[in-house]
TrEMBL record:
Its cofactor is Zn(2+). GO terms for biological process: ceramide biosynthetic process; ceramide catabolic process. One of its GO terms (cellular component) is endoplasmic reticulum membrane. It comes from Acaulospora morrowiae. It comes from the Eukaryota. It holds the Pfam family Ceramidase. This is 6315_t:CDS:1. The chain crosses the membrane at residues 125-144, 203-221, 242-259, 279-301. Keywords: Calcium, Hydrolase, Membrane, Metal-binding, Transmembrane, Transmembrane helix, Zinc. The keyword Cell inner membrane does not apply. It is found in: Membrane. PANTHER family: ALKALINE CERAMIDASE 3 (PTHR46187:SF3).
Amino acid sequence: MQEIEFIPTIDVLQSITENCPECYSHQKENLLVDARLYVGLVLSEFKLRRSDNLVPPQSFASNFLLIMSRIGYWQTTSSVDWCENNYEYSHYIAEFWNTFSSLAMIIFGEAGARMNLCEGFRFKLAFRLISVVGVGSLLFHATLTSEMQALDEVPMVWSALTLVHPLIESIYGPQGYWLPIAQVIHAILCTLAVTIAKGDMQFIFFHMSFGSLELLSLYLMHRIYSLKKSSHPAVKYLFERGVIIYSLAIAIWLTDLYMCDYVNGGEKSILPFNPQLHSIWHLLASFGLYLLVVLTLYNFLWESGVKCNVVYRFGGLVPVVVKNSLSFKDVKKLERSKPRKNSFISIYSREF
């Protein structure tokens, strides 16, 4: 069967360029036309050539729909486009694997809020903000729009802020009203910066805001680890595993962002396929963050005088903070659920 060639007339290209410059979007270095906005114009002006004859209208319509499916439903306006090929599996989902791997954040956030001893409002909020980040991430990767990107990134800043407060107070004691007021002001400024800025500046503002909170939180967690790793095995386990997993996730995130050409299965790639590294980042970051939030919760409760313990559920994989008022039967059940020795997650929690 002879290949059909699509020939846009000069009038069409000039008209779209002059009247609708936003109809163009760069996706993977290919210039695509959002023909949805000019479907009438394109249908009337586009010509198909097969040898010297025009293709019948029926063939034109079917091939035009094929082009439309590859363009995708959403117009890309985000400041970053990840390594996954866009609209590969669905006309309505820009990044299929990145979208559905975001469910990991929703699951870990909601499970953390329900399973852990979250006395008070702040830690339920901390866990559920992880779920909110997951919802935003799902919408962002499905659409690659700037609005959904903000919905992904702004809750990440809020989530980090909810951890800074209990970390500071568990180390330095109660701080009064100045700390929450300062955090609210910081949250407002970061939210405005991330939502108002566009392009590269938006990307820079977000990572400066979130990155600084990440570093501060890790510094405070390391202080807790240094003080309690000997007397509290749970602190040692949660910090070491949490940092290792989260650091690995960041390394994978950076590789996907800055070395896409070498890991996407293309001509320059050292891999024969695209391993969807950003999806792996979602999974590892969700679990690593969960471990670090549990560490913060456990330390805060202990410093507040609540006698608690970390137990390990789902085959010893998922640590959970519970009250230390267990029956003999419960203790035996929890003993059987602790991590196995000589494994990556091997450590035994003490009953305090």
